[in-house]
Amino acid sequence: MNRRRIINLACGFVFSLLLAVGCSQTSPQTSAQTELIISAAASLTDAMNAIQPLYQQENPEVKLTYNFGPSGSLQQQIEQGAPVDVFISAAPKQMNDLEEKGLLLSGTRKDLLKNAIVLIVPKANPKVKTFQDLMNGKVGKIGIGEPESVPAGRYAKEVLTSMNMYDKLQPKLVFAKDVRQVLTYVETGNVDAGMVYTTDAKISDKISIVATAPAGSHSPIIYPIAVIKDSKNPEAAKGFVSFLSSNTAKSVFERYGFGLAN
C-alpha cells in the first residue's frame, strides 16, 4: 500500500511538472510583448509620461520606452542607427533632415503640436518685467537653450535677434543642453532670466512668466512626429502615432499647455 502511494505521488509530481512546462510554452505573454522606443523632445516629458498609462490601458500588449532629450541630439542618435520607432521633434528642422536622408517611414510624418516661447524669472524677481529689461545692467545672466541643437534655443535666438538684442546680450547668455535645464537654472536663481516654452513654465511654481514672445518674432513652434523607417514594429508605431491624435491624448496635451497643430 505504501509502495503504491509512493508510485502515485511520483506520477502525480511528473504530471504536474509536465503540465507546468506545457503551460509556460503556450502562454508566453511577457516575452511576446511588443516594445516601442519613443525618442521625444525634452519639453514633452511630463505630457508623454501622463499619456503612457492611458495608452497602455488600451494597448496592454505594447510596452513604451521613452528617450527624452534635445531634438538635435535625438536626430543624431537616429542617424547613427540607434533603435527608435517613433520620433517627436520640437521643431521641423530635425525632422526635415531625417526625411531628406530617407530615414522616415513614408506617409507617417505629420505635425502634432504647437507651443509658444515665454520669458521667465525666479519668483518675486523685480529685475525683469519685459524683454527690454534684459539690457539692464542689473541683469547678469540669461539662460537659453543651445541654438544649434535645442529648438527652444533657436527660437529664443530668433526672438532676441528680431528685437536687435541678441548680439548685444551675448556676454550674458548661458547656453543649456535642453529647455528643462534652462528652467532649472531659473528656478535655482543661477540665472536672472530665461526663455522656455509655455509648457515648461506651466509645470513650475518656482518661476514667474513676465512676457510672451511677440507674434512674428520667431518661426512657428511646431512639433512634428513620424515613424522611423527602421522601426522593428512599424504597425504598432503607426498605432501609437494615431493614439497621440486621439481625444484622450488631446486632453492631456492641452492640460500641459500644448496646442494641437491641426
From TrEMBL:
Gene Ontology terms for molecular function: metal ion binding; molybdate ion binding; tungstate binding
Keyword Ribosomal protein: no
Keywords linked to the UniProt accession: Metal-binding, Molybdenum, Signal
Leader peptide range in chain numbering: 1-20
UniProt GO BP: molybdate ion transport
Entry superkingdom: Bacteria
Pfam families hit by this protein: SBP_bac_11
Residue sites binding molybdate per the record: S43, S71, A152, V179, Y197
Segments passing through the bilayer: none
Keyword match Signal: yes
SUPFAM superfamilies listed in its UniProt record: Periplasmic binding protein-like II (SSF53850)
Family as reported in the entry's similarity comment: Belongs to the bacterial solute-binding protein ModA family.
Protein name as annotated: Molybdate ABC transporter substrate-binding protein
